[in-house]
Amino acid sequence: MKLPFACCAFIGLLTSCHRLEEREAITESREISSYAVKPHIDIPSSTRFFDDAKDEPQRRPNFRDLLTWTVPEGWSESSTPDPMGMRLLDLRFGPNQEGECYISLMPGPAGGLEANVNRWRTQMGQPPYTAEEIANLPKKPFFNRDATFVAFDGDFKGFGAESAKTGYRMLGLIHSAEQATIFVKLTGPKELVDQNAAAFDAFCQSIKPNAPLTKQE
Question: Are strands 165-176 and 208-209 parallel, antiparallel or unpaired?
Answer without folding.
Answer: unpaired
